[in-house]
Amino acid sequence: MLDGKSWPSCKIESDMAAFIEAIDLHKTYHVGKIEVPALRGISFTIQKGEFVSVVGPSGSGKSTLFYLLGGLTRADSGKVILDGDDFASLSDAERTRMRKHKIGFVFQKFNLLPTLSARSNIEIAREISGNGHRDSAFFERIAELLGLARRLNHRPSELSGGEQQRVALARALINKPAIVLADEPTGNLDTENSNIVLRMLRQSNQELGQTVLMITHNPEAAKYADCILHMRDGHIVQPEEDPQWAPH
Ligand SMILES: Nc1ncnc2c1ncn2[C@@H]1O[C@H](COP(=O)(O)OP(=O)(O)OP(=O)(O)O)[C@@H](O)[C@H]1O
Ligand SMILES: [Mg+2]
Questions:
Q1: What pTM does this model have?
Q2: pLDDT in tens, the chain (248 residues)
């Protein structure tokens, strides 16, 4: 296993203009009368074109952060600034527009539409975004790189878990978004499928200058990133404070 010292931690503050900025994010869930604090003051900056991994134990707030960064839920306090726009100051319509045009999402549970073929599941992202021009060559290339070329007419129920995750990744990348947010994209995959997904994310990041934030439990997967953010109990912590990474 890697220790924290062998992989760079991401900078919390930067002198350069950030592409993604989280400023003192707080989020507490309310379940009946019980309060469940998920984020307790998270701040960091990510530069354009950076590939960042977020690691941390189960329940440390990683998915909550993913939803806030993607504008899928609102913070109780704090700000998310994407490419100069403060999510909170946007109207619902503007936020939706930003999500569709700028962000590709890879969800842990795929979120594919069961009645549509793999091809339609991928193409629907382009249709929803209203991004009219169809780049067939890019579609074919992504499908080929992800090993989906002969699976495009299958529905999700006719695909393996690894294939479904690869379709979900193709859907996230098809619009060439400036930002890719991926929540455990290799969570349930075997090594071979994990490597296909991770290589594709890295290649897309390098070729298109995409900014990628990938949540992962897996230290080997985290190594695909330029740097790592460690979370614990709703905070960003030093690698030494992360039991999975601390040198033994
Ligand atoms: N919808 C919700 N309602 C109430 N509590 C929630 C909700 N979603 C998450 N939580 C709680 O918030 C905390 C952070 O959850 P979150 O899903 O962000 O963690 P995580 O780091 O993604 O965990 P995992 O690695 O298991 O996916 C946990 O204590 C969780 O139980
Ligand atoms: Mg999670």
A1: 0.93
A2: 444 446 787 877 766 778 999 999 999 999 999 999 999 999 999 999 999 999 999 999 999 999 999 999 999 999 999 998 898 888 888 888 888 889 999 998 889 999 999 999 999 988 887 766 678 899 999 999 999 999 999 999 999 999 999 999 999 999 999 999 999 999 888 999 999 999 999 999 999 999 999 999 888 899 899 999 999 999 999 887 877 766 55
C-alpha span between 63 and 181 (Å, rounded)? 10
Alpha carbons within 13 A on the beta-carbon side of 43: 8
- Ligand at shortest distance from the CA of 182: 2
Check if 60 has its Cβ closer than 6 Å to any atom of ligand 1.
yes
Ligand closest to CA 65:
1
Amino acid at 210: Q
Q: What is the CATH number of domain 47-74+88-240?
A: 3.40.50.300
Find out whether the beta carbon of 29 lies less than 6 Å from any atom of ligand 1: yes
Sequential DSSP letters for 79-142:
EEEETTEEGGGS-HHHHHHHHHHHEEEE-TT----TTS-HHHHHHHHHHHHT-----HHHHHHH
